[in-house]
Amino acid sequence: MTGSKRYTLPITTDMKAALACLSLLLLSACVSGPTPYQARPADGEHGYSDQALERDRVRVVFRGNFLTPRETVENYLLYRAAELTLERGYRYFVPSVQDVQRDVQQNTVVTGVGTGFGGYGWYGGPVGGSLIIVDSFPARGAESYRASAVVKLLEAAPTDQTIDVFDAQEVIDNLGPTVVRPAQAQADRP
Prior knowledge:
Helix content is 27%, strand content 39%. The protein is an alpha+beta fold. The protein has one domain. Strand 5 (113-120) and strand 6 form a beta hairpin. The longest helix is centred in the N-terminal third of the chain and has 18 residues, at 13-30. The chain is elongated and about 65 Å long.
């Protein structure tokens, strides 16, 4: 038996760019649209979640995928806080500890492929094969956002005008028309 030889194909800059675009296209095909307003599924990453901290204090989080703009993530967080306020019998809420995190995913894109053969088969031809990564580089990442807040629920508006208080019903009325729920998201897709 002889040793196996590996051959590589030289990769041009144009080929790298084309393969990078192809990989981003394939990645975007996996995600079909912005994250709709929904509870975060147990097996998923995107949507809202909330946790009661005290009788009148709740932590709310909304995570969007890389197609969900930051403004939408922040609006969905406020919308969820307003829903919780009304559900618990309160009228106003004050988000106290607020945070928006920006996550950037870096993906490695295979930009070149070579093949190699080793050994000889029954008829004397090459048998087997291997895939060789010739080159790779980090692709420009996709941004996604995660907004969180600790929300204080209030029955009456505070008299202190310096406190940033939200009327839950007004938030629902104003943001409600912009909220896209899962059924609407499915209907809007081509």
